[in-house]
Amino acid sequence: MRKLILTVLAALSVAGVSQTALAHEGPALQKPGFSFEGVFGHYDQAALKRGFQVFHEVCSNCHGMRLVAYRNLKEIGLTEDEAKAVAAERQIQDGPNDEGAMFMRPGRLSDHYIPPFANDNAARANNNGALPPDLSLIAKAREGGPNYVYSLLLGFDEAAPEGHTVPDGMFYNAYFPGGNIGMPPQIMDDLVTYADGTKATKEQLAHDVVSLLNWAAEPELDARKTLGLHVMIFLTVLTALFYALKVQIWKDVH
Ligand code: HEC
User: Which of 50, 63, 173 most suits a substitution to test ligand 1, by most atoms within 8 Å of the C-beta?
Assistant: First the structure.
C-alpha cells in the first residue's frame, strides 16, 4: 500500500514538473481584458475595424493574413466600396490569359489578403533572415493566445538583463522565447491616425490589432456564443415544461 502511494505521489510530481515546463516562458502576460472573453463575450466591431487599420497600414508590410478574404472585411464593418478599395491596393498574379501568359492585376473582393512578399525566401531576405509568420492564426497558435500577442507587441521597452547578448539585427523582448526576436518594435503612440478619432495610445493600438487577429483566427466566435446562449435558454424552458408535465401526470397518485 505504501509503495502504491509513493508511486502515485512520484507520478503526480512528474506531472507537476512537466506542467511547469510547458507553461509560458518569461514574465507573466499582460491581460488588458478583451470584449470577446468569457461565456457571453462578443467582438467589439469598432475595435476590429481600428485593428484592421493598424494591420493594413503597419503589420501587412511584413506579415500576411492569408485566411482572410477581402470580402470578409464587410463582417467587421467596412463597406463594400471600402473593402474593394483595400483589395485594389495590391497586385496579384493571375492567368494564364488567351496567349498563355501570366499577368498581374489589382486584388478584388474574392481574393485573400495579398501577402507583402512573393515567397518565404523574399520575406527572409527583407527581414535579416527572420521569417515574419502569416498572422491569420497566430492568436490561437501561441500559449497565452491574445494576451501573449498583446504582451509581445508592448514588450520591447525593457533593456536586456545583464549578461544577455542580443545579436545584431535582433531585438530584446522578454515575452519571446529566448528573448531575442527578429521583429523591430512596432507599436508606438500615434502610430496610425484612427479614422474614428480614437486616441492611438500604445495600449489602444495593441488592443485593437490583437482583437483583429483573434477575429481572423476565430471569426465564428460571435455566432457560436449566441447559439450557445440560445441553446441554454431553450433547455431551461424545456426542463420547466417537462417538470410541469411530470407534476400533471403524477398528481393523482399522491
Ligand atoms: C518590418 C517588418 C515587420 C513588421 C512591420 C511587423 N512585423 Fe511582426 N515579425 C516580423 C518578423 C521578422 C518576425 C519573426 C521574428 C522571429 O522569428 O525572430 C515577426 C514575428 C511576429 C509575431 C510572432 C511572434 C512569435 O511568437 O512567433 C507576431 C505575433 C507579430 N510579428 C506581430 C506583428 C504585428 C501585430 C505587427 C503590426 C503591429 C507586426 N508584427 C509588424 C517582422 C515584422
Answer: 63
User: What is the residue whose three cell numbers read 518594435?
Assistant: 185
Q: What is the CA(53)–ligand 1 centre distance, in A?
A: 16
How confident is the model at residue 253, as a pLDDT?
A: 82
Query: Is-contact 64 134, C-beta < 8 A?
Result: yes
- Report the alpha-carbon distance of residue 142 to residue 139 in Å, rounded: 6
Average pLDDT of the segment spanning 226-254: 94
| Burial per residue of 11-28, b for 16 or more beta-carbon CB atoms within 10 angstroms, e otherwise | eeeeeeeeeeeeeeebee
Q: Whose CA is nearest to atom 24 of ligand 1?
A: 176
Q: Is 216 in the pocket of ligand 1 (CB under 6 A)?
A: no
Distance CA 168, CA 129 (A): 12
Span 98-124, mean pLDDT? 97
Could you tell me the pLDDT band of residue 26, with boundaries at 50, 70 and 90? confident
pLDDT for 23 beyond 80: no
161 pLDDT more than 50: yes
Residue 198 CA to residue 194 CA, distance in Å, equals 6
Mutational test site, ligand 1, from 55, 57, 62, max ligand atoms within 8 Å of CB: 62
